[in-house]
Design goal:
Helix content: over 70%
Transmembrane segments: 6-30
Membrane topology: Single-pass membrane protein
Coiled coil: 29-77
Number of domains: 1
InterPro entries: ATP_synth_b/b'su_bac/chlpt (IPR002146), ATP_synthase_B_chain (IPR050059)
Order of helices and strands: HHH
Distance between the termini: 168 Å
Pfam family, one: ATP-synt_B
């Protein structure tokens, strides 16, 4: 019994017995179980967060797709409105030009008729003046006055 290995063995057995008596293995197992439960809880929380993040990502992708669709619809509506406004503006411009053209044509026709009337009046005045000079030289007295009045009334009747 005097060997050192024997006493090391006895000390080791007593140490292990003391640890078992104090409950060290149960505490170690409880600590390991507690640590395992913490890790499991953290993993569960990480999975839940990952699933939530995936759901949020899917929601954002869906909202983005909806926003893009809405933006395309708005752009298309704006294009249609622009085409309609352009067509309306073109129609109004054409109508304006047509009205202005008609007004100009009417003014031209009025000016033309006035010019013709003025030319006729000037021609009639010239004819009357010429007839007066010719007749005054040839017909004098009452015969000249009668011829002048008759010619003047004929010219006026024809011009009107």
């Amino acid at each position: 019994m005097g060997s050192a290995e024997f006493w090391v063995l006895v000390a080791f057995v007593l140490f292990v017995a003391l640890l078992v008596y104090v409950g060290a293995p149960a505490k170690i197992v409880a600590a390991l179980d507690s640590r395992a439960n913490k890790i499991k809880a953290e993993l569960d929380e990480a999975r839940a967060l990952r699933e939530e993040a995936a759901q949020v990502l899917a929601d954002y992708k869906r909202k983005r797709a909806e926003a893009e669709t809405e933006a395309q619809a708005i752009v298309e509506a704006a294009r249609k409105d622009a085409v309609a406004y352009a067509a309306d503006a073109k129609a109004k411009a054409e109508e304006f030009v047509a009205r202005r053209t008609r007004a100009a044509e009417q003014k031209i026709a009025l000016a033309e008729s006035q010019a013709v009337a003025e030319v006729r009046a000037a021609a009639a005045d010239a004819a009357v003046a010429a007839a007066e000079k010719v007749l005054s030289g040839q017909a004098k007295g009452e015969l000249g006055d009668n011829l002048f009045d008759k010619g003047l009334s004929e010219v006026r009747a024809k011009l009107n």
